[in-house]
Design brief:
Strands 5-4-3-8-7-6 form a six-stranded antiparallel sheet, with helices on both faces. It is an alpha+beta fold. It folds into two domains: about 10-65, Arc Repressor Mutant, subunit A, CATH 1.10.10.10; about 75-270, 2-Layer Sandwich (Beta-Lactamase), CATH 3.30.450.40. A hairpin with a 6-residue loop joins strand 1 (about 55) and strand 2 (about 65). The chain is elongated and about 70 Å long. The longest helix has about 35 residues, at about 70-100. It is about 45% helix and about 20% strand. The relative contact order is 0.11. It has helices at about 10-15, 30-35, 40-50, 70-100, 140-150, 155-160, 175-190, 235-250, 265-270, and strands at about 55, 65, 105-110, 115-120, 135, 190-195, 200-210, 215-225. It is built from nine helices and eight strands.
Length: about 270
């Protein structure tokens, strides 16, 4: 690799980057060859990073992995994401409400239901839109389905394994049909509630992802049935996915976007 011109801090950060994404054990020579840095320089920086707990050295192999301090930093990021989710998402949701002139919500999955964490009401008040804290069974809500589509198989099985209550005549209650719906969402990147919670009201949802590309919430647009375009490439769907992408970016989700077919990592995990 061609020698990289960088100061000491840049070099230290580039060395830490070598351990991403799988934290594979690496030695001085291997890192030196990968980055094109002098072996003595790499050795000195590795010692400093290990002293600060950012790296940990295997006493037998003499190679390094990421250290406990990195774990603490990751925990701090994770805690801030949980605490700041609503403040981070709010301006984007408000902006989407202004663009679409429809009610937009931020929804979070909890157990076998989803609850509304934030609501930006559209100019035309939506009957039965709900209130902050309201819960809806996960198998019927667009936001929950968007989250479940990218959740672990265990999480999905916990929902699919239970009896799916019929809320309206349109609610999907057959586990096989619901599983098929989830797979379609994974491809499309958006989920629909087609009068499955309340007759006369439809919704479309897109998942929000954290730094580990795990779905932590969903942005949902709800409106009377005739105002929801039931296509994954509609103007509304595109604006919704873009909003979810922006919020995910603020939660340190790596690019590229993890919506729909672009999220191949989730498909490979299973």
């Amino acid at each position: 690799m061609k020698h990289i011109k960088a100061n000491s801090i840049d070099k230290a950060l580039l060395i830490l980057d070598c351990f991403l994404p799988y934290n594979k054990e690496m030695g001085t020579v291997e890192i030196s060859q990968k980055l094109g840095f002098h072996k003595a320089t790499v050795s000195r920086i590795l010692r400093i990073l290990a002293k600060r707990g950012l790296l940990s050295q295997n006493k037998e192999s003499k190679k390094f992995v990421l250290g406990y301090t990195v774990v603490q930093l990751a925990r701090a990021v994770n805690q801030s994401v949980k605490a700041d989710l609503i403040p981070i998402a709010k301006p984007f949701i408000d902006a989407l409400r202004g663009e679409l002139k429809e009610t937009v919500t931020l929804e979070v999955l909890s157990g076998k239901s989803i609850f509304m964490a934030y609501i930006a009401e559209g100019p035309q008040l939506l009957p039965l839109a709900g209130s902050i804290g309201d819960r809806v069974p996960a198998h019927a809500a667009a936001g929950a389905k968007a989250i479940l589509a990218f959740s672990s198989p265990e999480t999905r099985r916990a929902i699919l394994g239970a009896e799916l209550d019929c809320l309206t005549r349109n609610t999907i209650t057959a586990p096989d049909a619901f599983a098929h719906e989830i797979e379609k969402i994974r491809v499309d990147g958006v989920a629909f509630d087609l009068e499955e919670v309340n007759e006369g009201t439809c919704a479309i949802g897109a998942a929000v992802f954290n730094h580990d590309r795990e779905p932590v919430a969903a942005v949902v647009v709800a409106a009377p049935s005739q105002r929801i375009a039931r296509r994954r490439n509609s103007r509304m769907a595109k604006a919704l996915k873009e909003t979810a992408r922006k919020i995910s970016h603020c939660l340190h989700c790596p690019e590229p976007s993890v919506q729909g077919t672009e999220n191949q990592d989730h498909l490979r995990r299973e």
